[in-house]
Amino acid sequence: MNYFPDEVVEHVFDFVTSHKDRNAISLVCKSWYKIERYSRQKVFIGNCYATNPERLLRRFPCLKSLTLKGKPHFADFNLVPHEWGGFVQPWIEALARSRVGLEELRLKRMVVTDESLELLSRSFVNFKSLVLVSCEGFTTDGLASIAANCRHLRDLDLQENEIDDHRGQWLSCFPDTCTTLVTLNFACLEGETNLVALERLVARSPNLKSLKLNRAVPLDALARLMSCAPQMVDLGVGSYENDPDSESYLKLQAAIKKCTSLRSLSGFLEAAPHCLSAFHPICHNLTSLNLSYAAEIHGSHLIKLIQHCKKLQRLWILDSIGDKGLEVVASTCKELQELRVFPSDLVGGGNTAVTEEGLVAISAGCPKLHSILYFCQQMTNAALVTVAKNCPNFIRFRLCILEPNKPDHVTSQPLDEGFGAIVKACKNLRRLSLSGLLTDQVFLYIGMYANQLEMLSIAFAGDTDKGMLYVLNGCKKMKKLEIRDSPFGDTALLADVSKYETMRSLWMSSCEVTLSGCKRLAEKAPWLNVEIINETDNNRMEENGHEGRQKVDKLYLYRTVVGTRMDAPPFVWIL
Amino acid sequence: MITELEMGKGESELELGLGLSLGGGTAAKIAGKSGGGAWGERGRLLTAKDFPSVGSKRAADSPSHAGSSPPRSSSQVVGWPPIGSHRMNSLVNNQATKSAREEEEAGKKKVNDDHQPKDVTKKVNGKVQLGFIKVNMDGVAIGRKVDLNAHSSYENLAQTLEDMFFRTNPGTIGLTGQFTKPLRLLDGSSEFVLTYEDKEGDWMLVGDVPWRMFITSVKRLRVMKTSEANGLAARHQEPKERQRNQPA
């Protein structure tokens, strides 16, 4: 390859798209490193504090697309204080100063302000795509800047963000000349929506393929929107309360029939229990269905809908579907690849909850299943063993038994053997979440068998440091390890400090690690940021004579090439 | 604290019982090594008192229908079950709306049965589990979240908010960067008042309605400067005089 001119090598590299692969080729030799970095357009940064904007721009000056992730995963469950960090502002400022031709920005768990959005909208002439997932700190005013200033906006995709809705007119800020929209997702906005502006926008966007509405868009508006966008592929329904005899409903039925390209359906944020039948005619085309927010729809109506969805590949649903409903899914959806079952009721079980039977049924009926997230009331080892036998192809397996420490409900044994069977059979398992009563034994199995495991979530599990050590020593590809309320301490933490260089991050909260243990770790590994998050009082930790042995509430450590961050709030102590 | 590591000696040496001594049950921890209570006494692991039914359910052979509800607000586990806060809020809102609606219906029907209204009440309190709502304060850039279900009264809530935004420990700096003097957010005697946005989007002064009704209708809180709160629905105003005011 070295006999070819750079342009040829670069052309070959164009076919290499995955981040992992591009990172790998950049390590082959200096020449390839140089060619690769100048031709790299998409960069993924899994932890925004692992590097900084200056280094990013120095290495990849031709950057067009940037993905950044901020807070640790457990921030989703309110375990990370709001002011912890993950600010996008310095990144946007640096990118703006450098005049790089940014076209796409994807952020997850970051703090985004209206100021950031305004700066973003004004700094990049060709900016096309903004995807914000689980972000916070901005309002609809920020969205107004994006709408008004990004002339070639293609995607505005807001997923599960916390946005202060000023109920302003952000939708009307899209100029009449804006006709390039392909994706518009504002389902997470809580406030009212200017329906007239929305309808006009959709009508002048012939390329619009994905539209996800918020709860403020009622049925008659939905009917009008669908009839002026029959090319729709992905639809998120907002409010869906209707009277089946009404004119709106008839118009909706007619509009739906015309949407022959529709493949993905979601939303039903406020939905009447009985009304899904309007969508039955297009169900046979659906590959993705997300009814996980439709709390009002009863199991029987869900089942009726699903019986039409023979091509479904992805299904997100509430546990109100029940085991019987899952059996219907198992017999109907033979193409199913991903299933998520969320809890609909947090206070103790009901007849509608799902159990191990539903999981077994799915595993038996859906041979292509590779990703599952399953919240349930109870589980058995026998069921998990059967699931492992039926589905050895799991890539992601996340099981959440709602009651912590719950054992096998038939044998009262820990669930070590069940999970052990899963990791033994599923040789491609990359992500695993554990729950239920678990001893060190399950970690022995994980360390022994889960060779491809990259992300592991542990809660209320294990007995001794051995558990954590099995994992650290055994799982060579571990990238993200997150542990809460488990009895792992300094011995496990300090056993192999070099391991953390191969991992993106480690989170430990309510475990047994002590302050002195963390300090020792920080001394041994200066290339790690070891953060102690103590919302009570850091001063007290220091003053206390027994400071060394004081337990650390929350520990978050991650490898970094840029040292301690400067934007940490007072309750975050970076050792 | 575990001081010995015997990894090399092979796993067969591990004697694992049901490691967790929940309610002093059948567990036999690895003898001597862990010093039994080392993590038990200060452990963040939930003990039997957090799950009064778990220990006994395990001993008994009954298929545990999780009628043993997860712990109530006092020993509520933060961040469990692991559901994203956006989804959790949606769940909570749905249940609150449903329960409030049911409560209204029950009230309207004038039920003879004494138990029914009480049950509905319990449902309202029981079902609305993790009610985290956002709190912003004028002059503070980033908001906080507070769990309404961990509070039982307005005084309770005001105290938490005062601690949150104005740390009461001398020498420590709270979010506002000021040293404290205790606030009285509820009685109008301080520089700030506590306001909330309800389901209809109106901003009101906190304290007007019964606590229970408040927690089912509040969407978010704001600690507002008293000087700016003049237009808000005050206690003496009639509902129809209330204006839809956007806080500046």
TrEMBL record, chain A:
**SMART domains assigned to the protein according to its UniProt record, in alphabetical order:** FBOX, LRR_CC
Asked if the Swiss-Prot or TrEMBL record annotates the protein with the keyword Disulfide bond, the reply is no
Where the record annotates domain F-box, the positions are: 4-45
Pfam families reported for this sequence: F-box_5, LRR_6, Transp_inhibit
Tell me the keywords, alphabetical order. Auxin signaling pathway
Query: Could you list the residue ranges forming a coiled coil in this record?
Result: none
- Superkingdom classification of source: Eukaryota
This chain belongs to which protein, by name?
Protein AUXIN SIGNALING F-BOX 2-like
According to its UniProt entry, this protein's organism is Camelina sativa
From TrEMBL, chain B:
Keywords, ordered alphabetically: Auxin signaling pathway, Nucleus, Repressor, Transcription, Transcription regulation
UniProt keyword Nucleus present: yes
Entry annotated with the keyword Transit peptide: no
Chief location bin: nucleus
Q: Where is this region: Disordered?
A: 25-44, 49-121, 229-248
For bias type Basic and acidic residues, the affected ranges are 106-121, 235-248
* Subcellular locations according to the entry: Nucleus
Domain PB1 as annotated: residue spans = 130-226
One Pfam family assigned to this protein is AUX_IAA
Q: Which domain of life is it from?
A: Eukaryota
In this chain, composition skew of type Polar residues spans: 87-98
**Compositional bias of kind Low complexity:** 62-75
Q: Which family does it belong to?
A: Belongs to the Aux/IAA family.
Q: What task does this protein carry out?
A: Aux/IAA proteins are short-lived transcriptional factors that function as repressors of early auxin response genes at low auxin concentrations.
Q: Could you describe the subunit structure of this protein?
A: Homodimers and heterodimers.
- Name under which the protein is recorded: Auxin-responsive protein
Could you tell me the gene encoding this protein? LOC104700119
